C-alpha cells in the first residue's frame, strides 16, 4: 500500500491505512519513537479487544439459540392466552407440537402465495392446536341426505330482462347481521338458515333482526336435524314454516350445545312460508338468485386444512369436492378481485378472528368448486 503524504509543520508525515487504525510515520527519530510506542499500545488494545469481541460473539450465539426456543414457547403461551386454551402438562406438550406443525404448514403455503403460486394466504387462528380431523369433526355439521329428494321447495325461476350487476354485497346494504360464532358445535346449518331468513326479513320489513340459532338446534329435531351433530338448512326452513316462526337471538341466546326446546311465540322474530331451491350445480342461477333476491344459504366442502386456516384472498382449492359437502354457510354477494379472479362473498360462522373478519372469498365460475351451487336455497317470506 502506498502512503499518503501529509505536510504537518516541517515534518512530512506518512499515513498508512490499516482498516481499524492509521499508522503514522514521521521522519524524525524522536517522533518515530513516540509513534512506535503508540502503535505498540494500540496493538495490545486490539489484541485485548479481539478477545472481547470473540467472547461477545460466542455469548451472543448462545443467547440466540436459547432465544429461539424461548420464542417458540412464548408463541405457544401467547396463543393459549389469546384463545383461552388451558391444558394439563402432557396434553400441553402434545398440543404445542400440533401448533408448531400447523405454523410450518401455514408458512410453507404463504411462500407460494408470496410468489404468486396461490391466490389466497393462510394465518394461525384459534383452531391451530387441533388435528385436522378433530377440527372437521367439531366444526363441519352439514349433513347431506342422499336417500331422499334434495329439492322439496319451490324451484328458482330466472328473472327476465334484468342485467345482473358485476358486484353485489348484501352485507354493505344492511341485509346481514354481524358474524357469529358456532363454537365447538356442528350447528353451521342453523347459522346459514338464520342468515338467509334475516336477509329476507330485512328485504320485506326493512328491519334487521338477529334470529336464534339455538331455537333451531333445540327444536327442529323431528324435521331431521341433529343439533350439534349436524342438519340441513331446508329442514330448518321447513320447521320455521310449520312452527309459524323463530325466536329472536336476544330472547333465545346461543349456547353451543343442544338443550330442551323453549320456543315462545311472543318472542318470534321472523317466519317463512316455505323455501326455494336453486338448480343444483348451476353457478349462473346462483348468481341470479343472489343478485335479485338477497343472501342465499349454501353448503360447501370445507374439509381441507386450507379452509381451516384461510386468511385472505380468493380461495381456490383444487382438491375441493362439488358433492361431498360438510359445512353450511351464507353467500352474501359476489364480485371480481383486482387481479381478475371471480369470487363469491361468503359469511362463515366461526367468529371474526377467522378469515377476512369472518368472511371468505371463494372461487366463482370454476365448475362449481367446493360445491357452492350444489345445494343452495333461501326462505320465502
From TrEMBL:
<dbReference type="InterPro" id="IPR039417">
    <property type="entry name" value="Peptidase_C1A_papain-like"/>
</dbReference>
<keyword id="KW-1015">Disulfide bond</keyword>
<feature type="transmembrane region" description="Helical">
    <location>
        <begin position="14"/>
        <end position="36"/>
    </location>
</feature>
<feature type="domain" description="Peptidase C1A papain C-terminal">
    <location>
        <begin position="164"/>
        <end position="380"/>
    </location>
</feature>
<keyword id="KW-0865">Zymogen</keyword>
<feature type="transmembrane region" description="Helical">
    <location>
        <begin position="48"/>
        <end position="66"/>
    </location>
</feature>
<dbReference type="InterPro" id="IPR013201">
    <property type="entry name" value="Prot_inhib_I29"/>
</dbReference>
<keyword id="KW-0812">Transmembrane</keyword>
<dbReference type="InterPro" id="IPR025661">
    <property type="entry name" value="Pept_asp_AS"/>
</dbReference>
<keyword id="KW-0472">Membrane</keyword>
<protein>
    <submittedName>
        <fullName>Cathepsin L</fullName>
    </submittedName>
</protein>
<dbReference type="GO" id="GO:0008234">
    <property type="term" value="F:cysteine-type peptidase activity"/>
</dbReference>
<keyword id="KW-1133">Transmembrane helix</keyword>
<comment type="similarity">
    <text>Belongs to the peptidase C1 family.</text>
</comment>
<dbReference type="GO" id="GO:0006508">
    <property type="term" value="P:proteolysis"/>
</dbReference>
<dbReference type="InterPro" id="IPR025660">
    <property type="entry name" value="Pept_his_AS"/>
</dbReference>
<dbReference type="InterPro" id="IPR038765">
    <property type="entry name" value="Papain-like_cys_pep_sf"/>
</dbReference>
<dbReference type="Pfam" id="PF00112">
    <property type="entry name" value="Peptidase_C1"/>
</dbReference>
<dbReference type="InterPro" id="IPR000668">
    <property type="entry name" value="Peptidase_C1A_C"/>
</dbReference>
<keyword id="KW-0788">Thiol protease</keyword>
<dbReference type="Pfam" id="PF08246">
    <property type="entry name" value="Inhibitor_I29"/>
</dbReference>
<feature type="domain" description="Cathepsin propeptide inhibitor">
    <location>
        <begin position="76"/>
        <end position="135"/>
    </location>
</feature>
<keyword id="KW-0378">Hydrolase</keyword>
<keyword id="KW-0645">Protease</keyword>
<dbReference type="InterPro" id="IPR013128">
    <property type="entry name" value="Peptidase_C1A"/>
</dbReference>
<dbReference type="InterPro" id="IPR000169">
    <property type="entry name" value="Pept_cys_AS"/>
</dbReference>
